[in-house]
Amino acid sequence: MLFCEPDVIISVMKRVVITGMGAVTPLGNSFAESWIAIKEGRSGIDVIKSFDVSKMPWKSAGQVKGFDPLIFLSRKESLHLDPFIHFAAAASLMAADDAELINHDNRKSAGVVIGSSRGGISSLENTIALRTRISPYLMPATTISMAASVSAYKLGAKGICMGISNACSSGTNAVGEAARLIRCGSAQIVFAGGSDAPVCPICLKGYGSAKALSKHSGNTASRPFDKRRDGFVLAEGACVLVLEEMEHAINRNAGIYAEIIGYANTTDSYHLTKPLATGESAGIQSALADAGKNPAEIDLISCHGTSTPIGDAVEAEAINSVFSKLYPAACGIKSSTGHMLAASGAFETACAVMSMIEGIVPATINSDRPDPDCRVNISDRMRTGLTINNALINSFGFGGVNAALVLKKF
Predict the structure, then answer these.
(1) How far apart are CA 61 and CA 84, in angstroms?
(2) What is the pTM of this model?
(3) Residue 168 is among the residues annotated as catalytic for this protein
(4) Within 13 A of 158's CA, how many CA atoms are on the CB side?
(5) What distance in Å separates the CA atoms of residue 72 and residue 88, rounded to the nearest whole number?
(6) Catalytic residue selected from 168, 184, 303, 374
């Protein structure tokens, strides 16, 4: 059972820590490589070269570069499985290595919870476009839960396994629900995160026709909270975190990055695509209440910050309704990566962890002309020498889904 009854929570509440992180992003084929690029203020966004965009108004994306699935998968697996599964398995195995669980017996009882918004959409599109014989692998290789299943298989994990699809908040929801499993005593180790590979014509045209995508070209196209923003930049990638019950991690002498102390999963019940400030603020407030923190105790907000005109304005309104005139430091990681859908929330969580450890707030690049209607404390330059004890991560998605996490420095 995913949710705990109140009396169960009181009796078995556990503390949840992060002991491993792995990622594949447009900035690099590991979390360490991607984090260095974030700190250097680099962009992983460029003009799409994998298919013809010459007749489309949306020409840029954040694409993974130089990734070799054969490092993590067999040739047969790499041929039959969709790229979003490649990315998820790679991120999971790198997270296991980072947590020193590759050769550890404890991984056998671990759970895997991985979110995805679009699943194997590019493989489905390719099959239809090429009009080839339908492969017997097509259905299992494109279903959303297969990112978790294949990752579990490669890890040798035999605990709880599930895929979560909650639009753009899928990865953050996966981390939050995994944390709940541990807090309730249903698991001791859970690999949790998100993966998507949506950079294909149907997604570009689909999001574009909904007027959600930027028409700017090149590595400055993603501009969260900037007055020139005109839409998000589609991107691909994966990020997986190892979540662990604190005493279990301490007993095996694991390195601990941070603690997850709060989580909320709410919905606006309002509109298919339009966000609602009161719904988002309610989600933020719920996460803070779960963490036992008041707004003044939050030192960093990792914003959803997609670079859409409406989305950024509504998020800023929601943040200011909760934080009033506090204006904690904030960042918009999607300025560098683009919007990796489910992968973004998990990756932004990992970046917030490193921000706390290193005492920095990454630059929100391309956002040097802040929108005066978006009163969010971002900077187009990295801020250093800070003390960050608590961080908030926001993720929002179509359908009015809201996810928020609160992290504590360990």
Answers:
(1) 16
(2) 0.95
(3) yes
(4) 5
(5) 10
(6) 168
Output the six-digit token pair for 228: 């020139």
Beta strand segments in 139-254, E: 161-164, 189-196, 237-245
Give the torsion sign (CA, 241, 111, 181, 278): positive
Whether 339 is catalytic is yes
- Indicate whether 129 pLDDT > 90: no
Q: Give me the catalytic one of 184, 200, 203, 339.
A: 339
In Å, how far are 3, 178, 315, 379 from 187, measured between CA atoms?
13, 9, 33, 39
304 is catalytic: yes
φ/ψ of 378, rounded to 5, equals -95, 165
**Structure confidence at residue 135 (pLDDT):** 87
Query: H or E element: which one contains 248?
Result: helix 246-251
- Closest C-alpha to 185, from 125, 245, 225, 275: 245
Helix (DSSP H) and strand (DSSP E) numbers for the chain: 14, 12
Tell me what the pLDDT averaged over the chain comes to: 95
Backbone angles phi, psi at 167, to 5 degrees: 55, -140
The answer to whether 150 touches 321, Cβ cutoff 8 Å, is no
Q: Looking at residue 163, what DSSP letter applies?
A: E
* Residue from 200, 216, 304, 351 carrying the catalytic annotation: 304
Q: Is residue 11 very low, low, confident or very high in pLDDT (cuts 50, 70, 90)?
A: low
